[in-house]
Amino acid sequence: MKITSEEIARLANVSRSTVSRVINNYPNVPEPTRQKVMGVIEKYGYKPNAFARVLAGKSNMEIALCISNDNSGDGNRWKGMESPYFMRLIAELITQSKAYGYMISVLVISTEADYEEIENRFLNREICGGVFVGFEFQMERINAIAEKGFNMVVIDPDDSLKQADNVKAIYSENERGAFLAVEYLLKKKYARIGHIRGDNRLSARERLEGYCKAMEAAGYRREELPVEYGGFNREYAYRAAVRLMQEHQVDAIFAADDITAIAATRAAADLNKRVPEDVGIMGCDYVSLYDDLGIHLTTVEISVREIAKIAVRAVLDIEKEKQIVCRAAIRVGLTA
Amino acid sequence: MKITSEEIARLANVSRSTVSRVINNYPNVPEPTRQKVMGVIEKYGYKPNAFARVLAGKSNMEIALCISNDNSGDGNRWKGMESPYFMRLIAELITQSKAYGYMISVLVISTEADYEEIENRFLNREICGGVFVGFEFQMERINAIAEKGFNMVVIDPDDSLKQADNVKAIYSENERGAFLAVEYLLKKKYARIGHIRGDNRLSARERLEGYCKAMEAAGYRREELPVEYGGFNREYAYRAAVRLMQEHQVDAIFAADDITAIAATRAAADLNKRVPEDVGIMGCDYVSLYDDLGIHLTTVEISVREIAKIAVRAVLDIEKEKQIVCRAAIRVGLTA
DNA sequence: TTGTATGCGTTATCAA
DNA sequence: TTGATAACGCATACAA
Fold first, then answer.
1. 171-200 of B, contacting A, C-beta below 8 A
2. What are the E-state strand segments in chain A?
3. Which of A115, A234, A304, B260 has the most CB atoms around it within 10 Å of its CB?
4. Does at least one atom of strand D sit less than 7 Å from the CB of B1?
C-alpha cells in the first residue's frame, strides 16, 4: 500500500534506526550512508507517517489556531468565525506556518470542554502550540495549560492578562496608531476633530487615549473633545456620526474602526456633506474589503500578515520576546 | 501523564479489548459491563488517543478542505484564500462537520506536490474525505485518488468534470437563479434589461443562459439582448454598466455576481441615475459583506450553509447522490 | 462474552 | 557508527 521506513531500510541495506536517523537529521550518521538512504527515499517518494512519529514521541508539526466564538448574537456579523479579520488571519497563518513546515488547525472555542480538548491535544502531542485570538478567553485556562510546558500566543489580549511563563502576547499599536491618525487629520488642516469610540475593550480605550493625546498635544482640552459612542456597531456609529456633525459641528471624524468609518461616510452623504472636502473621515484597523467596492478609506493599518508572521515565530519560540508590539501605519485613501 | 485505555481497563477490572469495544460501541458487550467501563471512563475523563486509533487501523475523523490557490496575481483579491466566499465556506464547513464529530483541515493546493500530499494523507488514514473548491483543479488527479477508494466532493466543478466513482459533485442552480432574477425584474416592470456577464467558466455561462431564456420567454429575441463583458472584475464591470446604460439605454441590469452589481451601482451613481427608480440592479451569488456597509442588493442567493451541509453529508456518504444541486432563491434588497 | 497476542509505523534506548 | 528491541496507545483476529 504505502512504503514504510522498514522497506526503505531493506532497500538501502540498513536498519530502520538508520533510516530514522537520516530522516531526523541526526548527526551521528556518516555522509555516504546518508546519501545512500536519501537516494532510496527520494526514489520511492517515501514520506514518514506523521501519526506514527507522534505516537513514538515526536511532536506533530501543527499549531492550533483557537478562535473564541461569539455567542452574543446581536446580529452584527463582524465577529466570530465570519469576521473578515479572523478570516484574513487564518489565511495568513496558514501561509506563514507553512513556510516553517507547520500546519494550522482551527479550533472554535465556545465552551469549557473546548479548553480540555486543547489540553488533550497538547498532551497527545497532536499540536505543538496554540495561537489564541478573540474576545472572551479565559486566561486562567490558557495559563493553566501553558504552565504544563506548552507554548501559547495570545493576540491582542485584554489587559486582564496575567501571562504565565510560556505565554507570549502580541499587541497592536492602538494608541500610537490613533495618535498618528489624528496627527494626520491635524496636518490636513481639519480644525474640529471628533471621535467615534468603540466599546470598552482595551483596543477601543487605547484608540480613544491616542486620540485624546494627539488633540491635547495640539492644544485642545481633553474635557471638551467631541467623543460619541459607536461600540464598533454600524447603527450606533451612524448615529454617533450624525451627532458629531450636527450637534458638535465637527469637520473631521476619527472612527474607532473601519466599519465605524464606513458608517460615518454614509452619514456624511445623508447630510449632504462631501468627503473629504466638507468632512474628513479617518478609519482605523484597516480591513481590506472596502477597496474592492471602490471605497478607499484613509485609515490606520496594522499588517495582518505581520501579526501572523510574528505569531508563528512566537509560538515556535523563534521569537523569544514575551510582549511583542506590531507597528501601526497610516494608509492613505480618499476620505481624509 | 495522560490516562490510557490500559489504565481504564485495570480500573474497571476488564481487558483493554473490552475498553476498546465499549469505546467503539461494539454490540457484543453486555450492558452491565458497558456501564461499568463507561463509569470509569467518565470518572477519569478518558479520551482515546486519536493518532493511536488511526495507526491501529481506524480512519481519522477529519475532512480535508482543498482550496485551489489563485496564482493569477491580477490584483483582484476576490479569489483564493481571502475570498469571502471561501471564508464563509470554511466557517460553515467547520460548523457542519463538527456536528457530525468531524474536523476540517484546510489545504491550499497550488502545486503538483500538493496532490501527492492529499493522497498521502488518505493512505495514512489521516483524512477520510476531501472537499474541493476553487477554479483550476486537475480533475484527473482528483479522480485518480478517488479511484483508490477515497471519498471526494467537488463544489461547483467546471463542465470538464468526468467524475470517478467516489467523486460527488455539488452544483449551484445558476441557470435557474438567473432566470428567477430576470423574471423578478420583468415583474417589476423593467422593460429593457441588460446583462453584465462573467468570464467563460461554467457558472458565468449558465447565468447568461438563464438570462437569455427568461428574456426569450418574455418575447425578446436572443440576438438582440444587451450583454456586456464584466469578467467578474469590478473595473470591467463598471465600464460594462456604463455601456449598458449609455449605449443600450437599459433600465435594469442583471449582474453576473454581487461584485459586478456593486460596480454597476457605482456606475449608476456616477451617471446620476437613481437606483432602483431610474435603473434596477440585480446581483447574483449573494455575498453577505455588503449588508454591513448599508448596501442592500437585490440578488440571487444560494445558501453557503446549505452547500456546506450537503458537502459534509456527501463526503461522509450520508448523502448518496452523485450529482447534487443547491437551490437558488431571490433575496430582496433595495436595488431592484 | 471476554481476554491474549499481534500489528500499525515510527522513535528511543541500549548494546554491540 | 550501527542494529536489535522495546515502547507509543489503540484495534482486531483468534482463542477461550
1. none
2. 62-68, 103-109, 129-133, 151-155, 167-172, 193-197, 227-229, 252-255, 280-282, 299-301, 323-326, 329-331
3. B260
4. yes
